[in-house]
Each structure stands twice: as C-alpha cells, then as structure tokens.
C-alpha cells in the first residue's frame, strides 16, 4: 500500500488547495440608508462596485434634493463610463474560466448607463446648461445602441424628445429629434414643443428591473420586471391640472437590449464546467474500479493506473468546481420603472405644485403625493422640477 | 531510489497546480500608479473617445494663430475690442463650454499683447454694482462716474462644437468638428472662421459589450 500513499497524498493536497484564491474583503457595515451607505461604499467598498454605488447614491440624492451629491456621483461614474476603452484587467478576469463575471468593474447594462446620463442631463438643465443636458441625453441614446444584434436600439422616447426640446430652446431646429420620439412612442405620444413652457417636470415612478440568474450554473442573466402600483401622475399647479402616463418603460428597455458577448462567454464556461464535471466523475469511477481490481488481483500496474485515473478525475473535478459561469446580477436597484415628462408655462414667482401618483383606475395612491414649492425666475432660464414616487416631500426648488 | 512510482503523482500535482484555479495572477500595479505629470497636449494612458485636454490645446492653439493672421485684426487701426460669446455644444459630450474661449483669450493676450482687447462681459454684474456705488458716492471714483465708459464690442468670438458618433458592437467612433468665428458686432459679418477636426475610436472589452 505504501506505493499508493503519494497519489493519495496528492489528492488530499489538491482538495485542500482547491479554492486557494485570495479574496480581498471590504467589510463595510451597511445602515440601510443609501445616502450614508452609498458614499461609504464608494470610498471603502470593493473598487469594482464603485460605479454601482455611485449610481445608487445619485438616484437617492436627486430624489432628496441633494443635487451636489448626485452630480458628484454621476460625474465620476460617467467619467469611468467614458474611459472603458481598451484593455481592462477586471474585464479580462471576468471572461476567464476561473473568475465570476462580477469581478469586472461594474458599469451596468445599457439601461443603467442610460439612466446615469439621463439624471446628469436633468441636473445640467437645472443648472441652466441645456446644451450639456442635451449632450447627456444624446450620450444616453448612444449607450442604448451598443448591444449586438439589438432590434430596439436607441429607442427612448424621452431622450429624443428632450434632445429636440433643448435644441429648440437653444434656438435651433429640434424637429428631427421630435419626429424620432414620435416614431418610438408606444406608451404615450409626446406633445409638440411649447417654446413658452418654462417649468419642466421630469417624473418617474414604479420599481425598476432587477437582475437575476438562471440556468444550471446561474449563467443566464434575466431581468425581473416588477409590477408598478403607479400607472400615471397628476400635476396640480396654479389651476392647471395635467395627467401624464409613462413615456418609457425601463422594464422594456432592460429586456430588449439584445445579446451580450458575455452571454456567449458564460455559456462556454457552463459547457466547460459540465464537460470537466463529467470527465472528472468518469475518471474517478473508472480509476476507483481499476484500482480496486488491481488490489484484488495483486496487479501492481492496474493499481497504479487506477490511482492515476482517480487522481486525474479528482483534479478534473477540482477544475470543474473552480469554473464560475455565474452571471453578474449586480443591479442599480433604486431605479424607477417608468419615465415621463411635461412642460408647463408659469409666471415668475413662487408656486406650489402637488404631484399625485395614480393607480390603474386613475385614483391617487395614498402617501405618495408630493408637494413642491417652485421658485420660477424671471428671464429665460427654465425651472427644472424632478419628482419621483420616492422623492422627499415637501421639496423647494 | 526508484522515482518512477512518484511520476504519476508528480504529474497530477503539476496539472492540478496549473488548472485548479489556484493560479497566481501577477498584479501589474499592486501599489497603484503614482500621479504622473503629463503635458496637456499629449494623450495620456487614461483616455476615452470624448473631448480631452490634448484636443483643447490643439484646437485653441490653431485658432489663436489663425485669428492673429486675419486682416481685420492684423491691420486694425487701434485695438479691436472682443467679447466672448459662449460656444454651442452640439455634441454628446458634456463639457465646460467656457474653457475653449478662455484658452484662446489667454493665448491671444499672452502671445499678441496689444493687438486686441477682451471685454469682461461675464463680470458685468460686479462691474455695474461697482459703478453704481461710485455714482451714489458710497465709494471714491477716479473719474466722472456718470460717464459711460464700459466699452462696446467690435467683434464677438464664438464657436460651435458638432459631432458624429457611431456606436456598434464593434466599438465607438466619435468625430468632433470645432468651428470658431469672429463676428463683426456692427455689421454681423463673419470676418473670420476656422475649424479643427478630431476623430477617435475605441473598443471596450468584450465583457462590457
């Protein structure tokens, strides 16, 4: 039996070595308050999750009226989005058999990247820079045209509509962008531009898509589209009442993004994992039987061959166990489901607006009504009002 | 000593070491990369397809040289007064719009001092406040505070940034056209115009596509 000891020793050693991967822990205790957790995770969390936390922080901040934090978070995230060209070590790792997809630096799926630009555009407009706002809306459309074989490319109604509105307000012709927004409109038809409208309402409601993974090894990325209790919104201000339904559905955008190259990579990983798993099991079974037969018949060669097969089978199993085809399900989890917009004309001065969020039969949902005090300036600059069903209330803008 | 009996175990061990995932990945920059001083006109190792400092430097250098060569400036009687009118950003890149004109102004002031005068129209609010204080006698005045001394513009310097972007699964391509103009404030004539072009392409890792 002594001669079998080295092989067994190796097998035990291999098992003990399996999973010998150094993990860098980032122990950050979360409070549940995104405006606390977000900046903390950006500073102290895993570097590959930085943009994810910046996205989450920005969405929460803009709803609480903390524009400075939202801008700071989005500017850093967008800078990283714009600089992903060329070799990326984390992305290379994510494609390898032995690392999960989630080791790559998170930048999000196209619908998430679009929302980063969308929110930044709103903030630029609020700062009196409609051309930079337009730049963001255009960048959002470009992000939505990046998937392979995508049928529904650059089809956000609101982005094209706002592109055209900004162009019109800058004194140029926004009719092309408006025509595009009409062509893409499925949920609601956007109205023609009112050049006198000086108060812009950006509204959002409903819970956004959530990623999850299916498949034998969770290698298939899927999106959970959650139902929204809110189906429309009603604005009451200075005797004007406007009810608007959604223009864009992030659930639709998430599920019509086309294929990802990473889907093929993960599928390959899954196939490899299955193949090595089967080969490993076959090796172990055949090796065990051969080794036992060798022992029983006192055939030294058969015993050694059997142990070799067994060890090879164990190694192959270890390899199989190390392959990680799991899809990256990190999600910008505080996005809305629906986006919509309207523009009203109000005289300079202070106005109080209420925004009610309505259910499927047009009744206001309790505890969701928001009150916004709007200080409309004299002059040409637009007043930008952003209201979410998760916004703080009352807000003063 | 018969080593042959260890062969199979040794092979297995080596194979396992190679394949089991317990692979030592060489960290290229384990301690990060120290801040590296770069010239603003060179492309750094951190770059995208958008508008960057090297574009700003190249474009504004070209424009300031070109403006000085235009007859209306080169042969002007006296020092023409120029007001900067913010550029129009018609690209998908949010930028600080003032930075192009600021650099052109600085270039012209530093390399052709005396040829042109720039008017600080972006400071009019503070200037008017100071003038009003002088007129009301709250602060001293070196000259008659009621005289109109704010200068009018002879020319407006402005520009437009336009672009074409192509985005496919094969990558992204951005072409940006920078156009600058000098407009006669009296006649609305465009007395000078010049442009610069940049094109950049990039492809992100397949993991992001």
What is the number of helical segments of chain A per DSSP (H or I, 4+ residues)? 12
Coarse shape of chain B = elongated
CATH homologous group name of the domain at 47-122 and 152-203 in chain B: ABC-type transport auxiliary lipoprotein component
Residue windows where pLDDT falls under 50 for at least 5 positions of chain A? 17-23
In order across it, which strands form the biggest sheet of chain A?
5-4-8-9-11
Termini gap of chain B: 57 Å
In total, how many domains does the architecture of chain A comprise? Answer: 1
Number of helical elements of chain B: 5
Largest sheet of chain B: 6 strands, mixed
Which CATH architecture of the domain at 47-122 and 152-203 in chain B? 3-Layer(aba) Sandwich
Radius of gyration of chain B, in angstroms, nearest whole number: 29 Å
Number of β-strand runs of chain B: 6
What would you say this structure looks like, in words?
Chain A has about 400 residues and is α+β, with helices and mostly antiparallel strands. Chain A has one domain (about 35-265, about 330-395). Chain A has twelve helices and eleven strands. Chain A has helices at about 5-15, 35-45, 50-65, 65-80, 90-95, 110-125, 130-145, 155-170, 175-185, 250-255, 260-295, 300-320; strands at about 200-205, 210-215, 220-225, 230-235, 240-245, 250, 335-345, 350-360, 370-375, 385-390, 395. In chain A, the strands form three sheets. In chain A, strands 5-4-8-9-11 form a five-stranded mixed β-sheet, with no helix packed on it. In chain A, strand 4 and strand 5 form a beta hairpin. Chain A is elongated. The termini of chain A are far apart. The model of chain A is unreliable at about 15-25 (pLDDT under 50). Chain B is elongated. Chain B is built from five helices and six strands; from the N terminus they run H-H-H-E-E-H-E-H-E-E-E. Chain B is an alpha/beta fold and about 210 residues long. Chain B has a domain at about 45-120 and about 150-205: ABC-type transport auxiliary lipoprotein component (Rossmann fold), CATH 3.40.50.10610. Chain B is about 30% helix and about 25% strand. At the A-B interface, helix 1, helix 5, helix 7, helix 11 and helix 12 of A face helix 1, strand 2 and strand 4 of B.
